[in-house]
Known about the structure:
CATH topology: Alpha-Beta Plaits
CATH architecture: 2-Layer Sandwich
Strand order of the largest sheet: 1-3-2
Number of domains: 1
Amino acid sequence: MKKIAMFAILILIVAGVSLFYHAAKQPVNFVIFASSENLNNDLREALINRLETNDIAYQIAGDGSVKIPDKEVKHAVMCCS
């Protein structure tokens, strides 16, 4: 009986680690948070400082737009708008 219980626990642990690993590997989809048309250099720097202060990842697109992960949009709107 102890062997069956230990085996079940081992299976649950392996399944949990596997799910965590696959969830962490999901690609991050970045969306435009601030368009380059609405930003000058000072505004872009201020926005980047706010994003960094709030630990929100960002990318600068080729045209100068600021992109953030789609899962962080609500957080960014609350702290950086």
